[in-house]
Amino acid sequence: MTATATSTANLRALLHGLPGVDKVGVEARAAALGTRSVKTTAKAKAIDLAIRMVDLTTLEGADTPGKVRALSAKALRPDPADPSCPPVAAVCVYPSMVPVAVSVVAGSGVHVASVATAFPSGQAPLDVKLADTRDAVAAGADEIDMVISRGAFLAGDYAKVFDEIVAVKEACGGAHLKVILETGELGTYDNVRRASWLAMMAGADFIKTSTGKVPVAATLPVTLIMLEAVRDFRAQHGRQVGVKPAGGIRTTKDAIKYLVLINETVGDDWLSPDWFRFGASSLLNDLLMQRTKLATGHYAGPDYFTLD
């Protein structure tokens, strides 16, 4: 589907024709899956998989080149004392910090992701958003995390949101595009489903829950809805799209709940860093602490791993 082939009326009919979300049902299923236990051997594999799925992120106004270099080095060797510990999936930074991250991880297989399109509000003219995207890609980012215009979406101007995603996808060139829905601002589960489908139809490679800059970020029910959306989209259109919950995922216990959710909702096809990511900073340290506990029988000291 192209931008010229769409209209707000057509998109409204399609999106509002999606099945409604059973709020009680989705919350009950997410809660039930969140109680599943994982045994020791499986837990060790789950921890390493979760580490490989982390987009190690710093998106603060006080970010410095030194901080980004240190974070990038940690992305490569999360536990310097244990070479068997896998690297993370990506380092996620502001566009101005992309060259710093690239200088550390280039050639390693660790991706450099950059937020763009007037992150986190998305409130900027389209030409500004496109310039932001092109600059980040030119600097070496191979993944772009864009934010949708939530105001336009909530006002029912679906064609504007669709067209912006299409334009940003084109500006990405060969870089993968993650589309941030900012689910905490969408108001309803039905809107989460609609925004997920809208982003995928416009060309998103990933759909992402949140910027991490609003009070309500990733939740299990919202991620369940997004996983169902990517499953159903692939069944209908033959294209697989990834999912990235971000914001508020801080513990190994949290991460394993999401891995169970993937396994029970969409299956092994999405149990890979190619198709599922955690947008996080503090999560990695807890994963490393639990990994050390499984290997040695005791927890590392609180200052054993670097603080991010």
From TrEMBL:
Recorded catalytic reaction(s): these are: 2-deoxy-D-ribose 5-phosphate = D-glyceraldehyde 3-phosphate + acetaldehyde
What EC number(s) does the entry state? 4.1.2.4
Query: Could you tell me the superkingdom of the organism this chain comes from?
Result: Bacteria
What SMART domains does UniProt report for this protein, alphabetically? DeoC
Specify whether Cell cycle is a keyword of the entry: no
Q: Keyword annotations for this protein?
A: Lyase, Schiff base
**CDD domains for this protein:** DeoC (cd00959)
Task: Output the Gene Ontology terms for molecular function.
Answer: deoxyribose-phosphate aldolase activity
The record's listing under SUPFAM superfamilies reads: Aldolase
> Enzyme group, top EC level?
lyase
Q: Which family does it belong to?
A: Belongs to the DeoC/FbaB aldolase family. DeoC type 2 subfamily.
Protein known as: Deoxyribose-phosphate aldolase
Q: Which organism is it from?
A: Paractinoplanes rhizophilus
